[in-house]
Structure formats: C-alpha cells, structure tokens
Design goal:
15% of the residues lie in helices and 40% in strands. The chain contains three helices and eleven strands. The chain is globular.
Length: 209
C-alpha cells in the first residue's frame, strides 16, 4: 500500500491521465449508422394542376411537412431548381392545412434518430393562388432547429432578386451554423406566405440512425 501511495504522490499523471481517458471513452455510445444525403426530389412525380396531390411526405428518411413537389417542366415558376427539374414549395394554402413548414425525423415508422442540416438552396416567388404574375420576390426566411422540444439554433436568410432578374433567377444557398447538429425538427418560415411561395432544393443533411 505504501508503495502505491508513493507512486501516486510522485507520479500522479500515470493515474489521472488513465482515469480521464477511461471516463471520456465510456461516455459516448457509437451511432448505429450515419449517412449523408442531398434531397433533390427529382424522382418524384407532380400533378401540374392539383398541387394538393403533391405533398412531399417522407423523402430519404425525413418527413417534409407543408411542402409540395413542383415539376418546373410542367408548371410555370419564377425560380428554377438548383438542380434537375423538381423543387419543393410552401405557401399559405399548404400551411393552413398542415401547419408550420418543417423537416422532421419524428413520424410513424421513422428509422432516423436525429439529423444535421448542413445547407439548402432557396428562393421566393409570387404565390400563383393570389397573383397572375410569374415573378421572383424578395423574402426573408427564419430557420430554427429543435431537439427534445428545445431550440438548439436559429438563422435568418434573405433572397433578393435584382429588378433586372425577377424572372428565372438562381436560387441562393443557405449554409447553416454549427449548432444545427443532431436535431429532430427544423422549421422554415417565410415572411408573408399569403403573397409569396418559398421554394427549396438540394437539401443537404446528415442522418443518424
């Protein structure tokens, strides 16, 4: 015993360094699996007349609430997708029916525990329900991430087409801050959803199962 105590007194790093290593290595449980995906929605079909039939629902492990698929080769749109022909959209008519636009891992049958939102492309255009003008509009969106009912991060982005480029402007990329990690729910709210439709594409996420 005296020899052990003497060793601790004269060489404490041998004991405390090992104890610290054991503690830190036992705190984490490895994920069962992770995968990075980019939601482009280009394999989805879309009815060009009845948008109510085009609800996104589940796409690549996540549920998209209050979003519909839009095929821009069949429907007049002011903002083209970042890639392919499909994008997803939300406006007051979807939100009145199913609530706040959101991306979530919480739904019946979900195999995703949580997800990290890295980036997405977006733009805004006149809502075709209340406007006959097929033009892009400036808009500001507010994005918030949640886990276990607690907000973990938030960010604001603005899409500003120039006066000379209100028809077919490019989407812009929103890169999320570092606190948008291991989330269960992300809400995406645009200003004035009655007059403006928010469109998204190429949503880059990391899934944890």
């Amino acid at each position: 015993m005296k020899n052990i105590l003497a060793t601790i007194l004269f060489y404490p790093s041998l004991f405390f360094a090992q104890g610290s290593f054991a503690l830190s290595s036992s705190k984490r449980t490895p994920n069962q699996g992770t995968s990075e995906v980019i939601n482009q929605f280009d394999t989805r079909t879309a009815n060009p007349v009845l948008s109510a039939l085009n609800n996104v629902g589940v796409e690549k492990g996540l549920y998209f609430q209050s979003f519909v698929v839009v095929n821009t080769s069949l429907t007049l749109t002011a903002v083209f997708p970042h890639s392919g022909t499909n994008e997803i959209a939300t406006a007051v008519e979807q939100q009145d029916l199913t609530g706040t636009p959101a991306i979530t891992s919480i739904y019946s049958g979900s195999e995703v525990r949580y997800f990290t939102l890295k980036s997405f492309y977006f733009g805004c255009e006149a809502n075709s329900v209340v406007s006959v003008a097929d033009v892009a509009l400036q808009c500001t969106i507010f994005v918030a991430g949640f886990k276990d009912g607690q907000e973990k991060g938030s960010a604001t982005y603005t899409f500003s087409p120039t006066a000379a480029n209100v028809v077919r402007p490019s989407m812009i990329q929103a890169k999320l801050p570092d606190d948008f990690v291991e989330l269960q729910n992300v809400t995406v709210i645009q200003d004035n959803p009655k007059l403006k439709a928010l469109v998204l594409d190429d949503i880059n996420v990391m899934l944890y199962s």
